[in-house]
């Protein structure tokens, strides 16, 4: 059985006992900083192992509760699977409790346990009042049906029961996928003497092994995982859902910062324009306005940006699924489906959040057309998103498709198993409908070409590709191959034509062309220029060149030079006669006497023999090759 990894988040108002509860559950004090000890508040994220068995590992992240550290709270909750919402029984629901609840809801975290702490400070009556207050506050939230427990971290009352409940609740939560590519959003960076740069974070997806080559995005810095630790213990690998520290070789800790991501692939999108589905909170003081400045949080990233609406200029509180865009001041690493939070920079306030429908947003026009486009992106399945891209690009490298359609490797492979999907040259993806459309266009182009140029065998393959600009070369080549196998199209010496097409003289010119050829045969080896024959046959200058090439292609004439040609029968008869009446080698003089030709015809004739491979020139003689 594959080992399962989970992360539990402690959330709640400052001084409501999150750190004490974490210590009671794990026997580890997550307030490690001197300032945290002195001020008795959590400033940085704290982590501790809760449960370690052969088949499962559970970690706890203790997030700061103070309003000034909300950004760190968001960074800590991004990778959690279950939340423990902590409320002090002697104080009840407080402002930061509500904000944490909002953030958890916007991040899509729905699995939770509510814990009333500091039970020794209140009597039984106040305990019941606290419980009622919490239940009332949770109505309408994802946690309204969450189990509510009473504990005291100092005396240990209810601690074991809480631990048991966490273990039971975890059983029904799906594990994060270790398939696909590795991604760890960084939330802590530091350097140790003799070891170098170390980063920490929760592994969102995939897995990493010691020695693996990784990339730090968005900078694109190449590094190597020299060592991996999980809760202070060396490990040969880290898996999705685990809290891990990675010792990176080849990078200075000052080159990276919280919010960067350690990944195993270049397929992750680095972007600063993101299409999103946004939900605004009901308790905000003012609605959101077009192009207002916001703080954008996703994973461990915190970036300034602007909101861009396409169907409105402002919003009201508690609006759901607003399709819009966020344009960021700096590039970040995200995938389709990642959750985000937006906050007002000043005065600080959580405004809303949602999920990323397209990490590679573009510049769109204001209006309903853009909203329809964004809705199609949001609601589209993996297959539909792939088709949308293919309609524009016709064929796409699979790795590019993963990035631009926001797919997982497993999603892509699943789609490629379905009827109609085609993998070209092992890496380019297209669809049979694209191929069939290309085939139809090829047939149309060839048929039209034959109609306009009945004398020509067909069209050069390169020229055909230039006439099919809307299709990629790889799709064109694949389509041509299919048409050839289906015997609809033929390819001869780089020239494509319809399989059943044979070049022929247009009926209106047939008689004149046959007259020309008759005249050429009658003149035997002492021919006039082809221009004279065309003129004598009454064939206009505009079509002479085309007919000339046709005669050559059909083996009706053999060109001597730019102006003269022999009838094919005349030329072959002369070759045979000369071969019969000469030795292995012969001179120009001998050839002139045999064929009774002047130098005007003899030199071009002999050069034609050389070109056709009958003879080879050796000084002043010709030698028969065969």
UniProtKB/TrEMBL annotation:
Keywords: Cytoplasm, Elongation factor, GTP-binding, Nucleotide-binding, Protein biosynthesis. It comes from the Bacteria. The keyword Iron-sulfur does not apply. CDD domains: SelB, SelB_II, selB_III. InterPro entries: Beta-barrel_SelB, EF-Tu_GTPase, EFTu-like_2, Elong_fac_SelB-wing-hlx_typ-2, P-loop_NTPase, SelB_WHD4, Small_GTP-bd, T_Tr_GTP-bd_dom. Residues 3-175 form the Tr-type G domain. One of its GO terms (biological process) is selenocysteine incorporation. One of its GO terms (cellular component) is cytoplasm. Transmembrane segments: none annotated. Coiled coil: none annotated. The keyword GTP-binding applies. GO terms for molecular function: GTP binding; GTPase activity; RNA binding; translation elongation factor activity. It is found in: Cytoplasm. Translation factor necessary for the incorporation of selenocysteine into proteins. It probably replaces EF-Tu for the insertion of selenocysteine directed by the UGA codon. SelB binds GTP and GDP. This is Selenocysteine-specific elongation factor. The lineage of its organism: Bacteria, Bacillati, Bacillota, Bacilli, Bacillales.
